[in-house]
Amino acid sequence: MAIKIEQRIKGFKVVDEALERHVVVEEKAGSVVQMDESLQRPEALIGITYRIKSPLFEHALFITINDVVLNAGTPHEQRRPFEIFINSKNMDDFQWIVALTRIMSAVFRKGGDCTFLVEELKAVFDPRGGYLKKGGVYMPSIVAEIGGVVERHLIAIGMLEGQSLDETQRKYLAEKRAAYEASQGAAALEPGDGFPAGAQLCSKCSTQAVVQMDGCATCLNCGNSKCG
User: CA 154: distance to chain centroid?
Assistant: First the structure.
């Protein structure tokens, strides 16, 4: 009889300890800070400034995105954008720049998924037409390029996954490019100088890098081909 009572007491202790651990875990989970409007701006934030130069503007735009680090030093640590500023010597566009940055900053501080901003901004087209950046990347508008900067930043802090080519794909495209330049008798270009003259715009990666190879249109930037 004494043995049974002792076993029951031990059983109660086990259950009690399990419940205590559960409560502690729930308390810790409840203390995890999430991004929302109630979060006060810290005295100092981590920021990165990006410079973009468009032929549509006389002066460059400087885009600064400041991040807040939530739950620093814990397994729940994460870095999230908190505010954005755009500066330029060109004051003609001051009003829409201020409006855009205030709206975007409000979306950042709202919490949740803010990655939709990238696609929304990149889908804006300038009625005067877009332009090609260095390297042959097509930008439909200056707003779209701001979206590209936001995309780069969200990839850098881990909110978006980058779509980079693996080593095999890069090697394949390098061989294709070398073969094309050799067939055209063109001098090889240094990295970053762009793609061969006469290349067309790729519908997949929006880069002026599509050439005719073996009777097939092939993109030397992303590898997209109409022949599969």
Answer: 3
